[in-house]
């Protein structure tokens, strides 16, 4: 009887790339995920804010005229739509970068967050939450598209009130989710070069340029 030879890797894939990682546990100097997160949040907030402005335009138009601002209701809704569309596209890269950087993360040991959570639990909630937020943003973009091109294409107010309410709720969720991410960096030292060097016992004056 002939058996297949099974060759097991001598080390995990993460250990194989460990030599190429810097003191921030990344192969590049600055984390990408936090920058994309702020772009995602900014685009979403602008999208909802301008759709709110478009929804209340009949109450605001006198102010715009007094200030001599050439603002139109369709223009406000255009900003809302295109920012949300850009947010949906960018968020795929945000989540992808987040999962990659989470795989190489080395949190500081013996630390609990302000919420009383350990690093693994915080990362789990942040990772799962990121995927769910991406799904909601995509669904809201589809919802927004149907309002723009089908349901309300001939109406002045291009968005429904439930959509705006969902946007406000999502902004709160983004704030909470962002707090978890901030705790990973500020409290657990994830991908923070100085924190990792101090944890390793290095002298920052010598280790940092």
Automatic annotation (TrEMBL):
Record-annotated DUF2231 domain positions: 30-193
The keyword tRNA processing is annotated on this UniProt entry: no
Record key words, sorted: Membrane, Transmembrane, Transmembrane helix
Transmembrane in keyword set: yes
InterPro entries registered for this protein in UniProt: DUF2231_TM
Secretion signal, residue range per the UniProt entry: none
TM stretches of this protein: 36-59, 80-100, 120-143, 163-186
UniProt protein name: DUF2231 domain-containing protein
Originating species: Synechococcus lacustris str. Tous
């Amino acid at each position: 009887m002939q058996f297949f030879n099974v060759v097991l890797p001598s080390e995990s894939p993460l250990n194989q790339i460990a030599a190429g990682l810097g003191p921030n546990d990344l192969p590049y100097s600055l984390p990408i995920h936090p920058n994309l997160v702020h772009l995602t949040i900014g685009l979403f907030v602008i999208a909802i804010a301008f759709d709110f402005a478009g929804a209340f335009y009949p109450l605001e138009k006198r102010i715009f005229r007094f200030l001599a601002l050439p603002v139109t209701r369709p223009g406000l809704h255009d900003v809302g739509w295109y920012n949300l569309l850009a947010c949906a596209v960018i968020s795929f890269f945000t989540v992808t970068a987040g999962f990659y950087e989470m795989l190489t993360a080395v949190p500081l040991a013996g630390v609990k967050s302000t919420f009383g959570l350990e690093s693994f639990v915080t990362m789990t909630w942040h990772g799962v939450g990121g995927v769910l937020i991406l799904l909601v943003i995509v669904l809201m973009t589809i919802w927004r598209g149907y309002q723009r091109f089908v349901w309300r294409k001939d109406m002045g107010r291009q968005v429904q009130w439930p959509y705006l309410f969902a946007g406000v709720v999502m902004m709160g969720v983004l704030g909470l989710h962002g707090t978890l991410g901030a705790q990973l960096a500020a409290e657990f030292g994830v991908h923070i070069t100085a924190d990792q060097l101090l944890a390793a016992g290095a002298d920052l004056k010598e280790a940092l340029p």
